[in-house]
Amino acid sequence: MNFTRWSARLPGTQRRAAARSDLGVSKGLGVSPGHGVPQNQRGEGAVPAARHEHASDDEAGVPPVGIDELPARDVLDRVPALVALLHGPDHRVAYVNDAYAAAFGDRPAGAPAREALPELGELGLLPLLDQVLRSARPRTVKSRKVAGGRSYTFTCTPVTVPGPDGSGGPGVPGVLVFATDVTDHAEAAERLRASERRQRETAVTLQRSLLPQELEQPDDLRIAATYQPGGTEAAVGGDWYDVITLGGGRTALVIGDVMGRGVRAAAVMGQLRTAVRAYARLDLPPHEVLQLLDGLAIEIDANQIATCVYAVHDPNEGRLVYASAGHLPIIVRDESGTIHRAEEPTGPPLGTGGWLHASGSVPLGPGSTAVMYTDGLVERRDEDIDEGVAALERALAGATGTPQVVCDRLIRAAGVTADHDDDVAVLVLQHPARTGPDGELFRNAALELLGGVEAAPRARAFASGVLASWRFSPELHDLGVLAASELVANSLQHGTPPMRLRLRRTDRRLIVEVTDGDDHLPRRRRAEPADEAGRGIAIVATIASNWGSRRTPGGGKAVWCEFALPRTP
């Protein structure tokens, strides 16, 4: 369609044309509105004539308002904004309006602003006046609070002030200060900021409530963790960590990161953390735990993925066995100070499905320190993440002290502050080297069970001698020997070689463990009165503080029990 052809017929176009015609005639000739349009052309057609045609007789002949003759001082004295006119290099007062005088008091004319307008100095505006005078460009500062509690936005504009003699000669450069009261806006903004702070505090409280309130401290490890929420918005993140004692001296350690932020990410994180604790109680290998988590993550939310590392420390082995689902590598500093990076194997993040995870291991003997962390510690927008991991390795090489001290030093070395843009979770574990009297509280003894059923009396004698040398009470000595006898008898009857009895003591407990080559896990059951067997595990479960079993690499199993040691005053 040709809009040019039809536009002249549109009602709005005709009205605007008529108005422009009247206005042009009025301006040019000084005649009243409507003059210059022939009478026989007014009001014709379907479109009404311009508004000037309907002016009343009272309005005819009224001259336009002369704004040029309106006194500026009268106008400025009536506006509610604060106005001050300054002139010269020292910004001498030429004029302040009534609103300015009401806000700050009368100001003497001719005095320098530094003396006469101390409020501008308190607000830091005097240097701004110099800038405006030099650059001849206006400047604005927003929402400055004055002594009385009101807030103003100040605009300083360069002007030329007439000379004092009024001769009409060249004026003096000056500055017009115009201040608008924005107290309502400032208070609303402060209320909004306070509300956002409260929301963020609530979000952080929610996030922290989903994390362990107190870390479990295993016998053989010292552990600390730090969580630093990222950003300033009230959005919880999906970073989490946990420490789970598995029994038998073993400890599971986990750290993960659900992608994204917000309540949904936190909800997924909470479900995954709960699931990890449940799966850990099954005492499965790390890769099997991740396999279960992967399926659960898909069920929870197929669009939400998470990275995770699940690791198990066994003090008898002196290693950290782990599996990774797309997470960053564990960093270990051994007793000699050498840094190891546990990079392989690793699989895709949780929630992707279709992947068989695998376990790897890294040494963690006495004197070693390991760090597990989320990407917020090492990822920066302007550098490759491998550079961040390398920087973490350098920081760990020089970080000594308790686990909490190491945590804090790593956080500082990474430049993580309160306004960091990503959540950060760090888990530091140390396997301390025990020496002197402390070393006497951590002892190990093991016996290979050879020769079939005749190994049972040798096992009892071995256990009795070891427990006596560790100076346990007679009651604990007898309970330990009984537990060792029952576990060995169960293994000799139902297991296959190789078989081993291991005794271990810490400063908190006595652990008795028997391993063999059969992967069938025993169950506690009620033996019937006529049964000649089936009571061994029930006896162990009754006399021990805790007991359990797990499959071992290579197809065997381990059955263990533990006795809590009395606390020494």
- CATH superfamily heading of the largest domain: PPM-type phosphatase domain
Q: What is the CATH class of the largest domain? A: Alpha Beta
CATH architecture of the largest domain: 4-Layer Sandwich
Q: Which bin fits the share of residues in helices?
A: 25-40%
Trace the largest sheet across and list its strands. Answer: 2-1-5-4-3
Question: What do these coordinates show?
Answer:
The protein is an alpha+beta fold and 569 residues long. It contains 16 helices and 20 strands. It folds into four domains: 3-64, no CATH class; 69-181, Beta-Lactamase (2-Layer Sandwich); 211-431, PPM-type phosphatase domain (Phosphatase 2c, domain 1, 4-Layer Sandwich), CATH 3.60.40.10; 436-564, Heat Shock Protein 90, CATH 3.30.565.10. It has a five-stranded antiparallel beta sheet. A hairpin with a 4-residue loop joins strand 1 (82-87) and strand 2. Keywords: Hydrolase.
Brief rundown of the structure:
By secondary structure, the chain is α+β, with helices and mostly antiparallel strands.
Main attributes of the structure:
elongated; 569 residues; hydrolase; five-stranded antiparallel β-sheet; PAS sensor protein; single chain; disordered N terminus; alpha+beta; 20 strands; PAS-like_dom_sf; phosphatase activity
